[in-house]
Amino acid sequence: MAWNEARLESSMAQLQEMHARLCNLRDAVSRLVDPMLVPQSSPEELYNDFARNVNKTQADVQEFTRLIRSDKSKEIFERAAESRAQNSGDIRGWRVTEHEDWLDVRGVDVRAAGAIRTDSNPPPKTSIEGLRAAIEKFKNSHPGIDGSLDESSETIMITLLPPANIHFNIDIQNEASTQSKYLVTCKETSSMHSTIVRHINTIATNHSLEDLLELLGSYTNVKKAPCCQCGRLLDRNAQFPLLRIDKQSKDMKNSDTTRWRPTHPGCV
Q1: Which three-class secondary structure state does DSSP give residue 160?
Q2: pLDDT in tens, 151-169
Q3: Per the CB 3.0–4.6 Å rule, which of 28, 95, 189, 260 could disulfide with 244?
Q4: How far is Cα 186 from Cα 169, in angstroms, rounded to an integer?
């Protein structure tokens, strides 16, 4: 019996879940030995951390085993085998990178992340007093974030506390007497942080300093907030939602506010 579209989409979501959990297990061994690679205050603390990681890894393995052995998964694999047997000449192997939208089951029409603004003019130049005011306003609305200004170099330092633990610098480049351009760098140099910085600098050109600070602040929950498109924390490559979509909304007083929503690159 032919499968309808809803059943096919549900099966693809099941396969994505299996793939994400499998990718997560690739780091299982390194997570187990992590407590041994950092100083511990006592042997008891080392044992407790190691035991927690063992229990977490065991639970991840059990969940993946349950998922792949479920009746629904068996039906999916059987259906795939039947389809391949019937149409072997038209089916070939492919990589996820060839079809980034393979799980685009919601059909959401989302423009490029951060492309909500249509004006091409850079934001006006901000004075030192304006920079101080913007930082204070940002800190007051985000108590868990530290921000400061180096007036001599006109550099803003933004620190996101753990678990994000990201240190951003905003270099203010005044290319004209009435305009400012912002260049964001990051103390951390992992591939995850490099992706974040590239994305921020791509979309920061036509945004105000206030918008840019809000964008940086949205990464406080980078390891917790699920993708606003697929609803998952990890994508098929076991990556967090590292991009942000700029969406305008209305607050209780009907004034414009900007909400930066997390999304995976493949979900944009």
Answers
A1: strand
A2: 888 899 999 988 888 999 9
A3: 260
A4: 6
Backbone angles phi, psi at 89, to 5 degrees: -75, -20
> Does a cis peptide bond (omega within 30 degrees of 0) precede residue 163?
yes
Tokens of 58: 């065991």
- Over residues 39-46, the mean pLDDT reads 84
Instruction: Name the token pair of 139.
Output: 């800190």
Closest C-alpha to 138, from 63, 210, 203: 210
Q: CA angle, 262 as apex, 260 and 184 as ends, to 5°? A: 65
Worst-scoring range by mean pLDDT, 19-23, 116-120, 170-174, 190-194? 116-120
Give the number of other CB atoms < 10 A from CB of residue 261. 17
Q: In which element (H, E) is residue 24 found?
A: helix 5-25
pTM: predicted TM-score of the whole model, two decimal places: 0.53
